[in-house]
Amino acid sequence: MKNVKAYSAASATAPLASDTIQRREPTETDVSIEILFCGICHSDLHTARNEWGGTVYPVVPGHEIVGRVAAVGSAVGKFKEGDLVGVGCMVDSDRTCPNCREGLEQFCPNGTLTYGSPDKHTGGVTYGGYSESIVVDERFVLRVPENLDLAGVAPLLCAGITTYSPLKHWNVGPGKKVGVVGLGGLGHMAVKFAHAFGAHVVVFTTSPNKKEDALRLGANEVIVSTNPDEMQKHAGSFDFILDAVSADHDINAYINLLTRDGNLTLVGAPEKPLEVAAFPLLMGRRSLSGSPIGGLPETQEMLDFCGERNITADVEVIPVQKINEAYERMLKSNVKYRFSIDMSSLKSE
Ligand code: NAP
Ligand code: ZN
Fold first, then answer.
1. pLDDT tens digits for 228-238?
2. What is the pTM of this model?
3. Phi, psi angles (nearest 5°) of residue 22
4. Cβ–Cβ under 8 Å, residues 72 and 79
5. Probe ligand 1: pick from 49, 299, 333, max atoms within 8 Å of CB?
6. Residue 43: in which H helix or E strand, if any?
């Protein structure tokens, strides 16, 4: 085992603080990665503060990891020392269930999340990317295109794939009117992808000051969702709406905006259950669904697509010492549009 610097939360109410964790010695199929940047996902905050329940402390969040390969095990074929790589929300799965066999590891009933899952190597729990380095089986390591800004690549590993996957699944493309609710880390990536896929993109935001940015990111229209008149103008017109809101809100208002057979997919995961009225769903044969991250093949496809189209997240780069401030700003919807931690800042701890 190797001692590694990290930032962890010791309880639901404790701020994140400097800590030392242990990483396993690489096995023959492992890749040892020096972490360069790690994005801050709202899921990190939900978990650190135990908003979903079940958090094991201390927790080291972080599942938007980009780094450089420091060493590889003897049986590793895909990577060599010096390669640029990424790690997202998963570090293992059973590899044998029907989901894994289809490359849909996100649905594996025996998956291992990047942080907070039982760690079969150490006997403890897994620790995430708010750390100097990580050791991951090569199967769960992604290739990162060399041409992209690395601070902006990190968020692709969660915010990127979580929005890319449902947009693909629901055939978002030319001729489709698509809504994105919430212009945060996930939302702004959804706008970039839906625009790149050729759809007509409408952003719903509670923050009027994000209007210009939304247009710059690729939206065709922006609606301030607190204005009922603006909302009403779009009733019954959307083929697809992606809801990326992190807190309680009225989803019935959005279901009403769907066309017949339209779909609203939730990627946001608020702490409290959302209320759903029956009639808006019944009357248009509309549907409501959800989507978690994405499997390994699709995550690689998304990264390659971003390399070809020069797509990255818009990031505010921070040193690790600013994490707690960043969490507070994220709660106020005040980040443009993802925090990315420069992990070299850990060296001074
Ligand atoms: P984020 O950057 O904080 O963005 C959330 C956005 O939601 C905010 O920017 C804000 O947008 C809007 N919002 C916040 N509070 C609101 C409220 N009370 N009412 C209406 N709108 C509100 O968060 P994120 O990292 O993108 O994550 C969003 C959610 O997705 C979180 O719950 C996270 O846990 C979840 N998530 C799910 C998956 C998955 O696999 N499905 C993966 C990653 C994250 P405006 O300012 O534009 O209104
Ligand atoms: Zn995430």
1. 999 999 999 99
2. 0.98
3. -115, 135
4. yes
5. 333
6. helix 42-48
